[in-house]
Amino acid sequence: MLTLDSIQTLACGGLFLLVGYMVRRRVPLLMRFSIPAPVIGGLLVALFMLACRHWGVTPVRFDTAWQQPLMIAFFTGIGFNASATLLRVGGRQILLFLTLASVLAVAQNLLGIAMARAFGLPPLFGVITGSVTLAGGPATGMAFAPLFEKVGVHGAQSVALANAMAGIVLGSIFGSPIAAVLIKRFNLRPPNATGDAGVDAPAVVVATEPRRTIDPAYAGLKSLVFMLLAMGIGAWISGGLSRLGVTLPSYIGAMLVGAAIRNIDDTLGWFGLSTRSMELIGSIALSLFLVVALMNLHLWDLAGLALPLLANLVVQSILVLAFCCWPLLQLMGRDYDAAVMASGFTGFMLGTTANAVACMSSLTERYGPAPRAFLVAPVVGAFLIDFTNAIIITGFVNGWH
To answer: What residue ranges are annotated as transmembrane (predicted)?
Structure first.
């Protein structure tokens, strides 16, 4: 059996990450459903290992020591993106949309617990098949899986992957149709065309950076240093909270420190951090984290759980679609933009922000621009929901463990 050390495992993960991008480009169905390239690459390795286990062979053993730091780096990047400026840009609409998403995340967990009990499974199985992997997606699922393993959910990583992947597909399938139904049912139309008609707002809103000449290498280095600083300070905070007996994911401290540094910088301009550099570092960390985590996935742990997972996904999909029809449509204005927001809401509450943007884009190509929807939905789905969802998940873990 070949044993790879941590650097070799990371290199192997990078290789299969590139394979994932290549496969996604050549298989249109994967692109259509916005399946992440790291998931494709990592899953190819996991399927190979599953086949080898069937033959009674273990060809390679991975050292996933880099998995934890990469995961923390990604969520630290989420913290650095949590700018109060973004809330002021969208104002009440973003806060309301975030509140609705958080309420649904709680409902997803309660429904998941009820379904788990119906099948004689631990209540926390319902949480990991609830907001952890639906509102959270594969990254949150993989991040929380070790914690759920510790509290008694056997095969949590495999369950998280299966549920997250199915959610991504369902979010892509249901996102556009539910909005189309609402548009036709209530005869909703985009606002009167203006000079900007036909041009969508950017998919993700970021704070405006000052126009000045900055050495990209220096900007990237400074962003990396501040991210490492936030991770270091955050480790102390997370350790202190753990000693107080509070069960929290290891990235919480770093994510909070990142958010604090970002908002200090927005207010006082002390650090001059580059939003683009932070997003790039976070994106790379996420991709490598996912592919390394999935390479070491034990898919055979899913044996016997197919029916509970399928039944849960059916009722969770009904819950999300019903929530979009009411109260989301009503509270977000019962207009065309609100219907497009419902599409994005379905996308990221079942799958990922990529699903949300893809669904909304297909609608605006057909019916017309929805600038308010593209301002609100991606901001909430990209990172704000991760903050509230982490708090919600932690509350359920501490309450039900």
So the answer is: 6-23, 35-56, 68-87, 94-118, 124-148, 160-183, 217-237, 244-261, 281-300, 307-329, 341-361, 373-397
Higher pLDDT, 257 or 386: 257
Rg of the chain (C-alpha set): 21
Lowest mean pLDDT among 174-178, 247-251, 354-358, 394-398: 247-251
Determine phi and psi for 125, rounding to 5 degrees.
-60, -35
The structure tokens listed for 352 are: 């990922």
Per-residue pLDDT at 79 exceeds 70:
yes
Rounded to the nearest angstrom, the gap between the alpha carbon of residue 183 and the centroid of all alpha carbons in its chain is 27
| Section 352-366 average pLDDT | 88
Mean pLDDT across the stretch 145-150?
A: 90
| DSSP per-residue string spanning 246-312 | ----TTHHHHHHHHHHHHHHHHH-SS---HHHHHHHHHHHHHHHHHHHHHT--GGGGTT-HHHHHHH
Cis status, amide bond into 327, omega within 30 of 0: yes
Show the tokens assigned to 18.
């590139």
Identify the DSSP state of 188: -
Whole-number pLDDT of residue 90:
66
pLDDT > 90: percent of the chain: 52
Own/partner pairs, 118-127, CB within 8 angstroms, 24+ separation: 118/311, 119/307, 119/308, 119/311, 121/308, 122/152, 122/153, 123/400, 124/148, 124/151, 124/152, 124/153, 124/396, 124/397, 124/400, 124/401, 125/153, 125/159, 125/308, 126/312, 127/393, 127/396, 127/397, 127/400
The full length of the chain comes to 401
Calpha distance 108→114 (Å, rounded): 10
Q: Nearest 5 degrees, angle CA 362-CA 364-CA 367?
A: 110
DSSP label of 65: T
Which residues, at least 6 apart from 110, have a Cβ–Cβ distance to it below 8 Å?
130
Among the ranges given (88-92, 305-309, 340-344), the one the predictor scored with the smallest mean pLDDT: 88-92
Q: Please report which helix (H) or strand (E) contains residue 2, including its range.
A: strand 2-3
> What's the pLDDT at 384?
84
Burial of 340 (0-12, 13-18, 19+ CB in 10 A): buried
